[in-house]
Amino acid sequence: MDPHVLKSLNAAKRAREAAVIVTDLNDGRDRMVRAGDHVAGELGEAIGKALKSGKSGIAEAEGREFFLNVHVPPARMVIIGAVHISQALAPMARMAGFDVTVIDPRTAFATPERFEDSDLVADWPEDVLKDRPLDYFTALVAVTHDPKIDDYPLISALKTGCFYVGALGSRKTHGRRVERLKEAGLSEQTIGRIAAPIGLPIGAASPAEIAVSVLAQVIEALRTRDLPVRDADEGAAA
């Protein structure tokens, strides 16, 4: 691989950006294409499909053959709230292949005993996310019922373009949440990306059943997502 291409790929990996190394099998030349870069014609369509599937392979375009080596960051799930649902959801999500982080400033809830083997951070989300920012390949699950804890990461997730944003709460609770997020400057269209009530409608009742419905909804969003697109009206992440 060309040293410049390798350097660019390593930089993309550090930034958790999806990229494809496109190698022309006719002459051996390669280049890197980041998700969201415009590539015209059949090759662009093939690159888009490869990024969405996450699978490498050979593609034919414009009468030539290319090998598309896909590099997609591992999907993350950031759970806001060390509650009973989170205790069930965190191990389920890890089994499904997600890198999972649980954040909750309430030390009575965020204890190692309740979240054994979990990446648990007992601090305010706004402080944690400064050093561990959200990105397109992250699912944000907010389940504290407390606006002081949930609202900041929800706003950050929507601005960043997380592939999934979900929040626990009744329709009445979510209605109040919508008004707060509007006051924070988010558009109705952007706020409409929040899955609320959270989870697929399977009639879940217990914390474990709710966790199953949430994980299923997150997986659905992961497997049907499009290429990263930042909301033009929101700007950079908070």
Automatic annotation (TrEMBL):
<feature type="domain" description="XdhC Rossmann">
    <location>
        <begin position="77"/>
        <end position="218"/>
    </location>
</feature>
<dbReference type="Pfam" id="PF13478">
    <property type="entry name" value="XdhC_C"/>
</dbReference>
<dbReference type="InterPro" id="IPR027051">
    <property type="entry name" value="XdhC_Rossmann_dom"/>
</dbReference>
<protein>
    <submittedName>
        <fullName>XdhC family protein</fullName>
    </submittedName>
</protein>
<dbReference type="InterPro" id="IPR052698">
    <property type="entry name" value="MoCofactor_Util/Proc"/>
</dbReference>
